[in-house]
C-alpha cells in the first residue's frame, strides 16, 4: 500500500521556525525552510489553494520573526525596497526574480543594479539586513508563491521603498504596499479580459449579432451589445488597455523570458553578492 504524502501544516511550520530561531538563529530557520521545500512543494500549494489574485498573507508576526506568504500575480513586480533586517525567501511555486541594488554616489544616490538572483521552485536564499532588491514574477500566465521570513520586528521597523522609480526614495508603508498589490490585480483583470475577447469575437462571427459581456476592471466596465457602435467602443477600449498592459508588463519584467533555478547573474556594476550570505552567515 503506497505511503500517503505528508501534508503541510501552517501552525507546525511556524512553530518549527520559532523553535529553530530560539535554538540557533537564522541558520536554523533556513534549515527548517530548506527541509519544508525539500519534502516537496506540492503539499504547500495544496494547503494555500490555487491563487486567484496577488496577495500578502502574514502567517506570524512577532518581535523575533515575521513570516509571510507572498503571492505575485503573473507579470507583477514590486519596486526596489529594503528591510533593515535579515530576510530569507523560499519559493514553493513558480519563479521569483530578484534584482539587487546599491545607492551610487556617482549618479546622485540613484540605485544601481549589482546583480540578479533567480529563486526557483524549491529554493531558498538568505539575504543580509542591508539588502535592497526589486522582485518580479516574469511568467505572464502563472502565479509565484514564496515564504518571506524576516528576522526581527520587521512590521514596526523604518524601511524605504524606491517608488515610482529608482531615484525616488520614500518611506515604506503597508498602505503603499496595498496600493501596489491592488494595481497588480487590476492589471490581471484587464489581461484576462483581453485574453478572453478573441473568443467572444469568434462566437459573434458565427452569424447574427450576439450580446457580448466583458468581465473587466475599471478601464472597461459593464457590458456591450453586438452593434456597430458598441463594437467600436469595445475595440477602442481594448486597444487602450492593450497598450497600457504592454507598457506595464514591459516595465515589470523587461524583455527576458522566465528563468529557472537560483542562479546569480552579474549586474551593471558594483561588487557581486555583497549583500547575500552563504549558509553559516546571518548578516
TrEMBL record:
Protein name stated in the entry = Cysteine dioxygenase
| Source domain of life | Bacteria
Under the heading InterPro entries, the entry gives: RmlC-like_jellyroll (IPR014710), RmlC_Cupin_sf (IPR011051)
What organism is recorded for this protein? Catenulispora yoronensis
Query: Quick one: where's region Disordered?
Result: 251-283
Amino acid at each position: 500500500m503506497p505511503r500517503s504524502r505528508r501534508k503541510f501544516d501552517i501552525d507546525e511550520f511556524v512553530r518549527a521556525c520559532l523553535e529553530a530561531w530560539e535554538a540557533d538563529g537564522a541558520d536554523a530557520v533556513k534549515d527548517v525552510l530548506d527541509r519544508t521545500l525539500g519534502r516537496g512543494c506540492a503539499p504547500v500549494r495544496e494547503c494555500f489553494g490555487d491563487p486567484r489574485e496577488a496577495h500578502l498573507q502574514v502567517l506570524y508576526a512577532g518581535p523575533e520573526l515575521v513570516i509571510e506568504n507572498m503571492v505575485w500575480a503573473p507579470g507583477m513586480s514590486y519596486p526596489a525596497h529594503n528591510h533593515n533586517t535579515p530576510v530569507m525567501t523560499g519559493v514553493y511555486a513558480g519563479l521569483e526574480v530578484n534584482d539587487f541594488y546599491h545607492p551610487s554616489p556617482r549618479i546622485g544616490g540613484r540605485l544601481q543594479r549589482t546583480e540578479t538572483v533567480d529563486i526557483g521552485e524549491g529554493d531558498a536564499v538568505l539575504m543580509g539586513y542591508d539588502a535592497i532588491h526589486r522582485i518580479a514574477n516574469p511568467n505572464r500566465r502563472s502565479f509565484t508563491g514564496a515564504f518571506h521570513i524576516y528576522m526581527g520586528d520587521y512590521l514596526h521597523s523604518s524601511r524605504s521603498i524606491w517608488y515610482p522609480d529608482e531615484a525616488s526614495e520614500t518611506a515604506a508603508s503597508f498602505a503603499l504596499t496595498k496600493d501596489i498589490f491592488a494595481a497588480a490585480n487590476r492589471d490581471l483583470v484587464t489581461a484576462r479580459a483581453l485574453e478572453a475577447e478573441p473568443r467572444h469575437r469568434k462566437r459573434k462571427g458565427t452569424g447574427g449579432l450576439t450580446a457580448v459581456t466583458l468581465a473587466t476592471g475599471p478601464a472597461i466596465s459593464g457590458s456591450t451589445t453586438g452593434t456597430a457602435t458598441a463594437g467600436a467602443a469595445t475595440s477602442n477600449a481594448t486597444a487602450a488597455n492593450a497598450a497600457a498592459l504592454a507598457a506595464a508588463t514591459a516595465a515589470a519584467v523587461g524583455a527576458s523570458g522566465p528563468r529557472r533555478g537560483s542562479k546569480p547573474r552579474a549586474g551593471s556594476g558594483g561588487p557581486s553578492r555583497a549583500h547575500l550570505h552563504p549558509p553559516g552567515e546571518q548578516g
